[in-house]
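Please, structure for the following, as tokens.
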Amino acid sequence: MEIIHVILTALGSIITLFILSKLMGNREMSQLTMFDYINGITIGSIAAEMATTEFTDVTKPFVAMIIYALVVISISELTNKSIKFRRIVTGKPVILYDNGTIYEKSLRKAKLDSSELLCLCRTAGYFDLSTIQTIILEPNGKLSFLPLSDTRPLTGKDMKLSITQDYLVANVIIDGHIMTDNLKHTGNNETWLHSQLKAHQIDDISEVFLATCDRQNTLHVYKKCNELQAYDILE
């Protein structure tokens, strides 16, 4: 009976965590504020405790998880509506370097030293500070770099070239299955798709891992391969 109780509470905590995480929104780890991170750990700890510890009243940990989630959701709504509140919770961007000047007070505020700053510059592809105009510490903890105009990569606009804009491609086949709605969105049908596959010498749609259709109505097909790579050139 105890095992059944553990199974039920574990399933209940997983379902609750799933629902609460959906309500709180999907974010990458790099986009989480410190407050979001701590709350996420706390909610997860309560869920784990609930699944492994006997409670006289199982509703208490459930209520605690919901309260934490509601606080996160409320703060998220407030930060979306109030700039002042957003600055209190998430902070604001800090300029660490600009036009050849390193701001020591800003570095101390960011808990960085010069060696760490240079290391972060190198990992971003900047090995010489003289090629950078401005470095900003964003509220999510990442550094943003504004390169000097004469050191940034050449663009088509610089060369006065007329370049066609790229657009998203539609995934019309995924793992051997036709994505009907995506195919309709391209203005094509399954008859067109099968004829295109035959042009790629593919008779069975299950052979296709992925097929995409671009704005020019060109189908790009990526076939499945069940064989292991015979050689390794990466290590």
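The beta strands are 94-98, 101-102, 132-137, 143-147, 170-174, 177-178, 208-213, 219-223. Residues 167 and 215 are 7 Å apart (CA to CA).
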